[in-house]
TrEMBL record:
<protein>
    <recommendedName>
        <fullName>4-hydroxy-3-methylbut-2-en-1-yl diphosphate synthase (flavodoxin)</fullName>
        <ecNumber>1.17.7.3</ecNumber>
    </recommendedName>
</protein>
<feature type="binding site">
    <location>
        <position position="310"/>
    </location>
    <ligand>
        <name>[4Fe-4S] cluster</name>
    </ligand>
</feature>
<dbReference type="Pfam" id="PF04551">
    <property type="entry name" value="GcpE"/>
</dbReference>
<comment type="pathway">
    <text>Isoprenoid biosynthesis; isopentenyl diphosphate biosynthesis via DXP pathway; isopentenyl diphosphate from 1-deoxy-D-xylulose 5-phosphate: step 5/6.</text>
</comment>
<dbReference type="InterPro" id="IPR004588">
    <property type="entry name" value="IspG_bac-typ"/>
</dbReference>
<dbReference type="InterPro" id="IPR045854">
    <property type="entry name" value="NO2/SO3_Rdtase_4Fe4S_sf"/>
</dbReference>
<dbReference type="InterPro" id="IPR058579">
    <property type="entry name" value="IspG_C"/>
</dbReference>
<comment type="function">
    <text>Converts 2C-methyl-D-erythritol 2,4-cyclodiphosphate (ME-2,4cPP) into 1-hydroxy-2-methyl-2-(E)-butenyl 4-diphosphate.</text>
</comment>
<keyword id="KW-0408">Iron</keyword>
<dbReference type="GO" id="GO:0019288">
    <property type="term" value="P:isopentenyl diphosphate biosynthetic process, methylerythritol 4-phosphate pathway"/>
</dbReference>
<dbReference type="GO" id="GO:0005506">
    <property type="term" value="F:iron ion binding"/>
</dbReference>
<comment type="similarity">
    <text>Belongs to the IspG family.</text>
</comment>
<keyword id="KW-0414">Isoprene biosynthesis</keyword>
<dbReference type="InterPro" id="IPR058578">
    <property type="entry name" value="IspG_TIM"/>
</dbReference>
<keyword id="KW-0560">Oxidoreductase</keyword>
<dbReference type="GO" id="GO:0016114">
    <property type="term" value="P:terpenoid biosynthetic process"/>
</dbReference>
<dbReference type="GO" id="GO:0046429">
    <property type="term" value="F:4-hydroxy-3-methylbut-2-en-1-yl diphosphate synthase activity (ferredoxin)"/>
</dbReference>
Length: 371
């Protein structure tokens, strides 16, 4: 008799069409990707490329840049060609920049049907230009800039209004034979947002870009995004994600990656399994966990490190991890792959864990076990 199998994912992915955003596939069986957006002036090519390089290093897979002026449009070609990851131009208000972005070789263009006034008339030309270059379009509907017709019809940005706006716009492109489309329907309220994406998922096979818009400062935005993305991804809905935080974009990427890792949609990298501490703790768990996390920050191998305050759950968790410490009586029992390898005084726990983690990481790298 075998052990019952442990579910490794929450749901099968919704079946969506696959599109190609530069080198990154979105939808179909492609892994859910993480994206972010630069905060620099796009016309400042050096600063923008520098931020894109930082985003790339943090694990960002697709980057979006704003394009509100002609100077920004003029910078797109250089940025698109020098960026290590696909660049999406984000266009509001002015259709002429859509053509500029396509000409500049951007990997995709985001348009907002709610605020491009002459947009419907331009769809035929945009579809033609985008088809010729194989440039996908993201139809990005946003609660804050909903099409005036739909705002009038629904009274406010309801899930139905967001979905109708997106599908109407998509249908205009489809009329011209263009279906290389992904869609987002963002709202700042996770409940409205989740309902909108559920409806959209049921009514189409477009790949979906998830986002809670204007989610807020880092802590609140992280919670809102994690809850909303978690609800949808656990139902198999969502093909690419962008966490929006009032914080540096690298933070958005870290949160996005953690969400995917928590849902087993991406292989977990460094994972610290630490207890919350309680009246039984015999070491300062918070300090220990922080110091271990800081000492191992940036490690790219999938390593699970347990930091436990006492002998109740300590040895059990420490044994299950690649590496761990179970503390007691001012000492730490250091476990590697389930075996106690040594017992060290409390003052040596952190350095011993880091030393052992580096050895394991080195071995994993040799064995080709990368995240
Ligand atoms: Fe408390 Fe020990 Fe559990 Fe940590 S491992 S929460 S110290 S009982």
């Amino acid at each position: 008799l075998g052990m019952p199998s442990v579910p490794t994912k929450l749901a099968d992915r919704r079946v969506s069409r696959k599109i190609q955003v530069g080198s990154v596939a979105v939808g179909g069986d492609a892994p859910v990707s993480v994206q972010s957006m630069t905060t620099t002036r796009t016309s400042d090519i050096g600063a923008t490329l520098q931020q894109i390089a930082e985003l790339t290093a943090s694990g960002c897979q697709i980057v979006r840049v704003a394009c509100p002026t002609q100077d920004d449009a003029d910078a797109l070609a250089t940025i698109a060609s020098k960026s290590q990851i696909p660049v999406i131009a984000d266009i509001h208000f002015q259709p002429k920049y859509v053509f500029a972005a396509i000409d500049a070789g951007c990997a995709a263009v985001r348009v907002n049907p709610g605020n491009i006034k002459q947009f419907d008339d331009k769809v035929k030309e945009i579809a033609k230009a985008a088809s010729a270059t194989g440039t996908p379009i993201r139809i990005g509907v946003n609660a804050g800039s909903l099409d005036a017709r739909l705002l009038k019809k629904y009274g406010k940005a309801t899930p139905e209004a967001l979905v109708e706006s997106a599908l109407w716009e998509a249908s205009l492109f489809e009329e011209h034979g263009f279906g290389d489309i992904k869609i987002s329907v963002k709202h700042n309220d996770p409940v409205v947002m989740v309902n909108a994406y559920r409806q959209l998922a049921a009514q189409s096979d477009y790949p979906l870009h998830l986002g809670v818009t204007e989610a807020g400062p880092a802590f609140q935005g992280t919670i809102k995004s994690a809850v909303a993305f978690g609800a949808l991804l656990s139902e198999g809905i969502g093909d690419t994600i962008r966490v929006s935080l009032s914080a540096p974009p690298v933070e958005e990427v870290k949160v996005g990656l953690q969400i995917l890792e928590a849902l087993n949609l991406k292989q977990r990298r460094l994972e610290i399994v630490s207890c919350p501490s309680c009246g039984r703790a015999q070491v300062d768990v918070y300090k220990l966990a922080d110091q271990v996390a800081a000492g191992l920050d940036g490690l790219e191998v999938p390593l699970r490190v347990a930091v436990m305050g006492c002998v109740v759950n300590g040895p059990g968790e420490a044994r299950e991890a690649d590496l761990g410490v179970a503390s007691g009586n001012g000492k730490g029992q250091i476990f590697v792959k389930g075996e106690v390898i040594k017992t060290v005084p409390e003052s040596k726990i952190v350095e011993t864990l880091i030393e052992e983690a580096m050895k394991i990481a080195e071995q994993m790298e040799k064995d080709g076990v990368m995240s």
